[in-house]
Every structure is written in C-alpha cells, then in structure tokens.
Design brief:
about 180 residues
Length: about 180
C-alpha cells in the first residue's frame, strides 16, 4: 500500500463508523446499552440521546485527529518524539531521515486505524445489544482485536528500528563509494 493511502485509511474507518452510527440512530430504542458484561449481557443502559450514542464516534474522530496531527508535525520536528533508536536516528544527516519518518508516520496510521476499527466494532456491539442480539463470536473478535492491537503496534515500531538501520547502511555505503 502506498504511503499516501495509509494517511487516509484511519479516516475511512472513522467515516464508516460515523455513517453507521448516524444511519442507525433514528431506529434506536428509548434506552441503549452503555456497558456489557463478559457474557454479552447488558450491564448498564442510558437514555438514547445524541450524546449517549455519538460519544464513541466522537472519541474515534478525536483520536484519529490527534494521531494525524502528530503524524503531520513529525517531519518538521522529529526530535520531539520518543521512539526506539532515537539517538541513532538523530545522528543521521537530514537527507537520510525522511524514510525513517515515513515509517514512523505509517506506524501512527496503523495505530489510528486499529483504534477506529475497535471503536466501530464496540458501537456495532452496542447496537446489536440494544436489540437483544449479541453474538458471542462478536465479543471474541472484539477481544482478540483489542489484544492484538498492542503487539501489532509494537511490531510496527520495530519497523522504525529497521528503517534506522537501513538509513545507516545507506549512509555507510555512500561513504564507501566516495
């Protein structure tokens, strides 16, 4: 996938989430679930209101917006960010840093996408619970996705280290060819 497309990917998931929430809102019952227990049973409810239903999409938009802002700011001042191999990265000449920054931005996009997908699935689960239909497999999928999000982000961060090593190799190779 080209890097420009990863910039939009989290927003596609957020858009799907918001459109879904808006599409089902008019048909919601007077009370909607706000929490489910591990068995998929409704643990608490709230009166259906704009705020109670659209809180999750707003968190999804805010989180994606924050990560997109960080990704936009990153190329201008990467020294402000904490990441593995930061000292080695900062020791690279400026012309060797952009590929590493691109990997860091992709990591932020993957993180934002994972959060947006998780929030959307939670919204879907609450919608299903509002009508008394919470399939057990849906809870398992949501739990697995949430559990895999952390290692997925860590795996993505290891790509940053690999990008720093590749930039150092290019720098060494350039020095040898002179």
């Amino acid at each position: 996938m080209r890097r420009g497309r990863t910039r939009l990917l989290p927003w596609v998931f957020v858009g799907i989430h918001v459109v879904f929430a808006a599409g089902v809102y008019p048909a919601l019952p007077p009370r909607i679930p706000t929490h489910l227990d591990f068995n998929g049973l409704v643990a608490s409810t709230s009166a259906t209101s704009w705020w109670s239903w659209f809180a999750l999409p707003m968190v999804s938009v805010a989180t994606t917006g924050l990560l997109a802002a960080i990704a936009a700011y990153l190329p201008r001042n990467p020294s402000l960010f904490n990441f593995p191999d930061k000292a080695r990265f900062l020791a690279l000449p400026a012309e060797h840093q952009p590929p590493v920054v691109a990997v860091m931005r992709t990591t932020l996009d993957v993180t934002a996408s994972g959060v947006a997908i998780t929030m959307g699935l939670v919204q879907l689960l609450l919608w299903r619970a509002a009508f008394g239909r919470v399939p057990q497999n849906m809870q398992v999928v949501l739990l697995l996705l949430t559990l895999l999000l952390g290692p997925g982000i860590l795996l993505s961060v290891t790509r940053v280290s690999a990008a720093v090593e590749a930039a150092e190799r290019r720098l060494r190779d350039r020095g040898k060819s002179r």
